[in-house]
Structure of TetR/AcrR family transcriptional regulator:
Amino acid sequence: MASPDTRTQLLDAAEHLFAERGYRGTSVRAITDLAGANLAAVGYHFGSKAELMSAVARRVVEPINAAQCAGLDRLLARTPDPAVADLVEAFTGPLFDEMQAGDEGGARTSRLIVTILGDPAEEVRSWTGPAEDTVRERYLAAFGRALPDLSPEELRFRMRGILAVTAVDRVEVYQQSSPTCPSPVAGEAARHWAITFLTAALSAPPTRT
Amino acid sequence: MASPDTRTQLLDAAEHLFAERGYRGTSVRAITDLAGANLAAVGYHFGSKAELMSAVARRVVEPINAAQCAGLDRLLARTPDPAVADLVEAFTGPLFDEMQAGDEGGARTSRLIVTILGDPAEEVRSWTGPAEDTVRERYLAAFGRALPDLSPEELRFRMRGILAVTAVDRVEVYQQSSPTCPSPVAGEAARHWAITFLTAALSAPPTRT
DNA sequence: ATTTCAATCAAACGTTCGTTTGAATCAAAC
DNA sequence: GTTTGATTCAAACGAACGTTTGATTGAAAT
């Protein structure tokens, strides 16, 4: 169906450059140069730069979504009403796992996610598949059962806080670490700090209105 | 020293467009068109597009920094060791004040801040003046006294969480609200939700290592 | 040997970008 | 009335952009 190599190398190069310089800051020529491919390869394999970005995003987000989903399944298999701390860990864990797994790949992944989410262009942000929404809704329901006193609106607010804290933290780690050494120590510490931080935040009593 | 109008109108137009489409997504031509000025006006008044961005950022951030500083002064005048909740409110308050103050200007301000902070280009992120660092260090010291059991590293992590939660929330509000109606109700509720959320998070016991 | 077809390639397409130029404008100073 | 100096203007600059084209490759199918 496709070349076994250049297509993947284009995805790799694009993921790297999009994370480092953003979508608009990365030219198709820079991608093909890094991939060792011809300039026209992007058009041939993906159709356009935007569709390449979409493919990159899908490749990055899918395993995270799957891991989050599996983590929730594992929790629910044990007990129908997991504790807040366990839910937080299951949700944020995959984001941290990505990091220490690869050679600086994981922090870059987070950087890429923030680059996408933070980009004002609809074109860049519009790849959010239905799978992502499904996972979020499932966690929302689980958190709702664990925190029954919270209004749906405030619960949504707090869940948004989870993503904000983890994503921003990972970006900071990526920006400060040298390109070659991602400092896994800081990454592992941040993982536990984030769970402590977010569990306390989620578990706070409802804001009295 | 300068025209009373076009310079300011360029700043207004640039602030609007940078917030909505990002730095790279905004052309100098779009700015001058919206400002009703000539294309060359940006070069004449600011030197370059990058310096215009720097001027916009400074104009947006300075009043926030000043308000954060004044809020801390007010707290310290009352007691040398303010409570965590009061510190959180003094720090996040100015970010929320900006919103309900103006006609959709405040949420846009937050959108702009996130656009800047999230932009991978060093050129865009490098405007952080010394004033910003000073304010952050002062709050860091105050939080340190209020939370003496926390290691400096974990305290820094938690303070980064404050910015992450407030900024990301404000962006969400901006993206969902119609351009004309920023829904100040949601803004006022989010303000209290954020204080609750962050106070609990900051006050969590130290992560045991 | 010929056909076939996906893949790669150099080259060019037209557009948009940030910036620069040099003349035109206009009120204040002389 | 003339000069001055700051400001605005239309026009063009070269560079970089995403995309398209049409020829070329090379291995598998006939």
Remarks:
- Confidence is low (pLDDT under 50) at residues 178-182 of chain A.
